[in-house]
Design goal:
single chain, 286 residues, alpha/beta, Rossmann fold, five-stranded parallel β-sheet, 5 strands, 46% helix, globular, binds adenosine-5'-triphosphate, binds magnesium ion
Length: 286
């Protein structure tokens, strides 16, 4: 799989209508992809082990999508082989009263992955240029009125770019995934949630209301991705109509990124190595 196919090229305009949401590359079916996904999950576990042991870099994975595109399932499957101690998952919902008493990155800062960890954001600060933009919620955010101008979204793109650059320059590698589902497939998934008893709990009337704003969301996603896909913090647009392909693509991108990170098991000094030999002997002579 050539993962560069999914990347939103920095400094270019993304047009989501031109990107296939049911693409599956050379894979024909779920069973076709099964073995590769399994292999990837195993590989990821080895890479995580090194990241954790070295304790210097961290990896931040951001998942954004329309409702029912499969954020939860992708996080669950792709991360299933990882050591839970080395992962930190956060979901971002409507901000609380306490969170609204701060700037929008305040709550994010508290959730960033520690060094050596893989952090997963289920939604993120990108909601600030998505749902907040679609529903014009910015007036409810307690920002001084005179600071809210028609440049607010451009300003936020810049703030987000600055924030991500700062993280990158301090050892956090960032990958951003937009799970790209078609409107038709969203309808199918909502119908499944209604028809299948075990999925009823996932159905929410609010999701149907948001579906009415589909075009507005797509426009905002397009602009957000175009403005903030950078070499050091790329957006990947993942075809999400076929869940099995989406999971495989995400895992492949994570692996290829981790393989490029200059992460190694900590090296012992000559002195420390000598001490290990002494400890070994002491244990053996017990
Ligand atoms: P699920 O798959 O379980 O439905 P979800 O991520 O949709 O997961 P919900 O609790 O249904 O979770 O919805 C969270 C809601 O919070 C979303 O509609 C999202 O747009 C909204 N939200 C997230 N961040 C912000 C924000 N900064 N301002 C306003 N709304 C936000
Ligand atoms: Mg929801």
């Amino acid at each position: 799989m050539d993962v560069s196919y999914f990347i939103a090229k920095p400094n270019s305009i993304v047009e989501l209508t031109k990107i296939k949401s049911d693409y599956t590359g050379d894979y024909k079916s779920k069973s076709d992809a099964k073995a590769d996904l399994k292999k990837n999950i195993k590989k990821m576990s080895g890479l995580q082990d090194k990241l954790y042991a070295e304790d210097k870099y961290s990896l931040l994975l951001i998942f954004q999508a329309m409702d029912a595109a499969g954020k939860d399932g992708t996080i669950k499957h792709v991360m299933s082989g990882l050591n839970p101690q080395g992962t930190q998952v956060f979901s971002f919902k409507q901000p609380s009263a306490e969170e609204l008493n701060h700037d929008y990155l305040w709550r994010i800062n508290r959730c960033l992955p520690e060094r050596g960890r893989i952090g997963i954001f289920n939604r993120s600060y990108y909601e600030e240029v998505l749902v907040v933009r679609v529903h014009n919620l910015v007036d409810k955010e307690k920002i001084p009125k005179e600071l809210i101008t028609d440049k607010i979204w451009q300003q936020r793109f810049r703030e987000i770019n600055d924030f991500e650059k700062h993280l990158y320059e301090n050892g956090t590698v960032i990958l951003k995934f937009f799970l790209h589902i078609s409107k038709e497939e969203q309808k199918n998934r909502f119908l499944q949630r209604i028809e299948k008893k075990s999925k009823n709990w996932k159905f929410s009337e609010a999701d149907l209301k948001e579906r009415k704003f589909w075009d507005e969301y797509q426009k905002c996603y397009q602009e957000a991705i175009s403005e903030t896909s950078k070499k050091h913090a790329p957006w990947y647009i993942i075809p999400a109509d076929k869940k099995w392909f989406m999971r495989l693509a995400v895992s492949q991108i994570i692996i290829e990124t981790m393989e490029k990170m200059p992460v190694n098991y900590p090296q012992l000094s000559k002195d420390q190595e000598k001490k290990l030999a002494i400890y070994k002997q002491a244990l053996e002579n017990e």
